[in-house]
Amino acid sequence: MKRWLLLVIFICAFMPSVSLSDETIPVGLFSSGSLAGWEPKQFEGETTYRIEVLDNHQVLIAHSENAASGLFKETTINLKDYPYLNWRWRIDRKLPEHDEQQKAGDDYVARIYVIRSGGLLFWRTKALNYVWSSRAEKGKTWPNAFAPDNNRMISIRSSQDNTHQWYSEKRNIYNDFKDWLGEEIVEIHAIAIMTDTDNTGGEATAYYGDIYFSKE
Q1: Where is the signal peptide (predicted)?
Q2: Most buried residue among 4, 53, 89, 148 by CB atoms closer than 10 A?
Q3: What predicted TM-score, i.e. pTM, was given to this entire model?
Q4: Least confident among 15-24, 30-39, 157-166, 195-204
Q5: Domain boundaries, given as residue ranges, for the chain
Q6: Between 1.20.120.530, 2.40.10.500, 2.60.120.260, 3.40.50.410, what CATH number should domain 2-214 receive?
Q7: Which residues is 151 bridged to in the sheet?
Q8: Is 6 helix (H, G, I), strand (E, B) or coil?
Q9: Which residues pair with 50 in a beta bridge?
Q10: Cβ-Cβ contacts under 8 Å for 148 (sequence gap 6 or more)
């Protein structure tokens, strides 16, 4: 629960809005070599994040060794206008299979949070966690081991997917929140990235391409 509270406090500190383009809203323009607006947050040890060139493109590289820290960006997105989150990612190695529904196994080689802030009512903050699972099949969902009422885990990739291969993802965030909470969530207030191995004591390297919201 400590990790979740630290995240909530960090997100609620400030929630700036962004200017909108016609079709997309950029969140992480790593291909331009920029980490503008992204802030580190350390939970246990330090996952390193840096921009490097891979496959002739600048990407964000995350390396974790028995550590959990993330990058967070506060940004307000209207999900009725821009419901789709788009991103690319790949991993170099898989974590050993572990029970991700238990606190001792709550580690992911790659993870993207989409966060709706509860403001001062921090217990109302909700987050969708899109993860590269070491155990769960693609499409499986479950409550987070540390904050089950506040976090929903969704397996986007699994141990059956290839390492050293890029995958492009698109999720309808508006629909995912409605499926989970049974209510309409119009705005989200932050995006976070985390590659973490602190609970299992492992090591992982993940790569993240550009992240953006789109109308379609």
Answers
A1: 1-21
A2: 89
A3: 0.89
A4: 15-24
A5: 2-214
A6: 2.60.120.260
A7: 127
A8: helix
A9: 61
A10: none
Cα within 13 Å of Cα(175), Cβ side: 7
Tokens of 127: 């987050």
Alpha carbon distance 149, 12 (integer Å): 18
Which residue would you say has higher pLDDT here, 9 or 83?
Answer: 83
Give the pLDDT band (50/70/90) at residue 18. very low
- With 0-12 / 13-18 / 19 or more C-beta atoms within 10 angstroms meaning exposed / middle / buried, residue 2 is exposed
pLDDT in tens, 36-55: 999 999 888 899 999 999 98
pLDDT band at 9 (very low <50, low <70, confident <90, very high): very low
d(CA 48, CA 62) in angstroms, rounded, equals 6
Say if residue 16 is exposed, middle or buried (CB neighbours under 10 Å; 0-12, 13-18, 19+).
Answer: exposed
Closest C-alpha to 108, from 85, 86, 83, 89: 89
Provide CB contacts within 8 A for 36, sequence distance 6+.
29
